[in-house]
Design brief:
The protein is an alpha/beta fold. Helix content is 34%, strand content 18%.
């Protein structure tokens, strides 16, 4: 039997509302971000997932995980490899500023104090492979970040890491990946927001 991995992007943060790059910096959830996570909680509870619930060790992911966890069932495990890409000196700057500095499609470029797209990809794939191997045949929940989900989705879909993105990963969206017994990943759902749509 294969393993199912449900990955949630954290709720909306103050930096999100200001269109600023967060990276490893911590920006707290907004009131809307907390409400998004609370709206997702019943869906997570209905999925009958394993007790382990993994999350990035950054505050915004940890808080989202706390809000979606089923009381008396889920036990949170912080996993630093699920952190957002580190942008170093570019953290806290606007999207326009950052996009002028980072060369388009260059997966080797790392800002001072940050990491490259290739480094992000390698740690994210290693983290999700390790989690899946630890929970063979189970359904697992993890809370992470937009950049992490984009990198992993590109990996699973066989897209180059430097390819232009044709999909969005919104706050508290739910994406489902499955790994078969041979260790091959597939995408079942990407960016599902049904819990916020009525």
């Amino acid at each position: 039997m294969g393993t199912q991995l449900i990955v949630v992007r954290h709720g909306e943060t103050i930096y999100n509302t200001r269109n600023l790059y967060q990276g490893h910096s911590d920006s707290p959830l907004t009131a809307d971000g907390e409400a998004q996570a609370r709206a997702l909680a019943p869906r997570i509870r209905a999925l009958c997932t394993a007790p382990a619930l993994y999350c990035s060790d950054l505050l915004r992911a940890r808080r989202t995980a706390e809000l979606i966890a089923t009381a008396g069932h889920h036990e949170l495990t912080a996993e630093p490899r699920l952190r957002e890409r580190g942008y170093g000196v570019l953290e806290g700057r606007s999207r326009d500023e950052v996009q002028q500095v980072i060369p388009t499609g260059d997966i080797e470029f790392a800002p001072p104090g940050g990491e490259s797209q290739r480094q992000l990809h390698q740690r994210v794939v290693a983290a999700f492979d390790a989690i899946a191997s630890r929970h063979l045949g189970e359904r697992i929940v993890a809370v992470s970040h937009g950049g992490v989900l984009i990198a992993f989705a590109k990996h699973v879909l066989g897209l180059p890491q430097g390819a232009a993105r044709r999909f969005h990963i919104h706050n508290t969206s739910l994406s489902v990946f499955e790994r078969d017994d041979a260790g091959e990943w597939s995408v079942r759902t990407l960016g599902d927001l049904a819990h916020l749509e009525g």
